[in-house]
Design brief:
This protein is α+β, with helices and mostly antiparallel strands. The protein is built from eleven helices and 18 strands.
């Protein structure tokens, strides 16, 4: 599960954008017993979060930053930033990513990376076996301009391994992925989490997946648990017949009429909402049944508020160690009956600089749980995240 994530100087974000899934430690937990999971060390992490903001405010860029970070773990190419990812107001080409997460055995990892347009500037990996223990260093590396070489802090890594890491440094992937290839237990766990647990999914990526289904997609579509999720879009649906070659267009959707007769239809001829949710239901399955961490860009752009509410209730109602974070324009999610304040985030663009800012409803102490006008506050611009003149 993801604990904290901070990044800066990425696209429309310049200053640190800080995101946390740590649940409130106060009495409010009793009001939302299903909204969080408790890790072996006692840390309580939220199962879901929603991100609201105006068009072009930066919501997608937040998710793209995670996609970019994950891509560095997947590709053994030169590690550097690209001009299109740099904030145009920054005046510098360095950008940083800082992420803390917990793997299934309860171990917590803290990974930090700073890069510029040429190389890795600094990279480090820390771990702790219990949440209340001090972090232990796996490695800490940084570039020394004077010597034009990488320096490693004393972290218990033997010199032959350090020499192997220095070889082609930055040109063939991250230090973390190299260390994993060399058999380091901690690096292996961190890399596996980034590659196999973190799922930042955008609409563009979703469209591509429709054209190129994976074997994992096919497996999930044939799982009875998937049908339970997909039926939330229309409870007359009673079955699906998955087409392995073109599952996102040729799959047959079976419905039962009130008189008991059946109606079959290819997915490509169904409604836009059904086709969209057919894809997104895969990600919801991953959260609930595979403990994945999914960041979904505008998941409910064509879904009605009732279905959106069903999705969140389903995720919260199941016992799992997955997380579902999504951006939306549906202001009906601004509801303290469903979410803790820590689960509601806003993205707003500063008019003078056009930089994006990310912040939580929990940053507004004057907003109390007894308040029932969160939606009104937002529409009036009191909470930001709206394109007001």
């Amino acid at each position: 599960m993801i604990i904290n994530y901070t990044f800066n100087n990425y696209r429309s974000f310049y200053n640190d954008a800080e995101f946390s899934m740590i649940a409130n430690a106060g009495k409010v937990l009793k009001r939302y017993p299903d909204n969080y999971s408790t890790l072996p060390g006692g840390l309580k992490l939220l199962k879901s979060a929603v991100m609201v903001g105006e068009n072009a405010g930066g919501k997608s860029n937040f998710i793209y930053s995670l996609q970019f970070l994950k891509s560095l773990f997947q590709d053994n190419s030169v590690v550097k930033t690209v001009s299109s990812n740099i904030n145009c107001n920054a005046g510098k080409d360095q950008e940083s990513f800082d992420i803390t997460f917990c793997v299934e055995n309860g171990r917590v990892y803290h990974y930090c990376l700073t890069i510029d347009s040429k190389r890795i500037i600094a990279e480090s990996l820390f771990y702790k076996n219990e949440n209340n223990k001090k972090e232990q260093s796996v490695f800490e590396a940084y570039w020394e301009p004077e010597t034009k070489a990488y320096h490693f802090e004393d972290s218990g890594i033997e010199e032959p391994v350090r020499n192997a890491l220095r070889k082609n440094a930055g040109a063939l992937g991250l230090f973390t992925t190299k260390l994993a290839l060399l058999g380091n237990e901690y690096a292996i766990e961190a890399v596996n989490w980034m590659n196999n647990t973190l799922y930042p999914v955008s609409l563009t990526e979703g469209s591509q997946s429709v054209k190129r289904p994976s074997e994992q997609d096919i497996r999930i579509l044939n799982d009875p648990g998937y049908l339970d999720i997909f039926r939330m879009v229309d409870y007359s649906i009673c079955g699906i017949t998955v087409d392995r070659e073109q599952p996102f267009s040729k799959t047959i959707i079976s419905r039962k009429r009130a008189d008991g007769t059946m109606m079959d239809r290819e997915l490509q001829y169904d409604s836009t909402g059904v086709r969209e949710f057919f894809v997104w239901a895969i990600q919801i399955f991953r959260v609930v049944y595979e403990n994945k961490v999914v960041f979904a860009d505008e998941m409910d752009r064509v879904l009605n508020p009732v279905l959106s509410e069903r999705v969140i209730s389903f995720i919260n109602g199941k016992s799992h160690l997955g997380q579902f974070i999504f951006s939306t324009h549906n202001v009906l999610h601004l509801d303290l009956k469903t979410y803790m304040k820590e689960q509601i985030y806003f993205v707003t663009k500063i008019r003078d600089s056009l930089n994006s800012e990310l912040y939580s409803l929990s940053d507004f102490p004057e907003v109390r749980y007894e308040t029932t006008k969160i939606y009104e506050f937002y529409m009036k611009g009191i909470l930001g995240g709206t394109a007001l003149e």
